[in-house]
Amino acid sequence: MVKKQTAGQKQLGKLAPKFAQLNDEVLFGEVWSREDKLSARDRSLITCASLLTQGAFPQLEAHLKMAQQNGVTKEEIVELVTHLAFYAGWPKAWSAFDLVKKVFGD
């Protein structure tokens, strides 16, 4: 079961309350909770892949932590990054591996 997210409220609640609400209630509340359609583990893999290809590394770090909580292994993330290096670019893979080491350890 997906853990209730409150990052939007904590980080942007005062500045952008509607965005924070959409983040917490719609994206993480409604979309991520549709585990009968796609597991949280699979959503984590997909999200990490998307963030890596975009070069969105601050968000990737947060989602790597979520992926770990959702049962994704270090070996699976390493394979994901290795595979995407050829599609997203070698420098992005290098940057992603720094985050993988930070989150999952060497």
TrEMBL record:
GO molecular function, one term: peroxiredoxin activity
Residue ranges of every copy of the Carboxymuconolactone decarboxylase-like domain listed in the record: 17-101
Listed InterPro entries: 4CMD/NDH-1_regulator (IPR052512), AhpD-like (IPR029032), CMD-like (IPR003779)
Gene3D superfamilies: AhpD-like
Protein name (record): Carboxymuconolactone decarboxylase
Pfam families: CMD
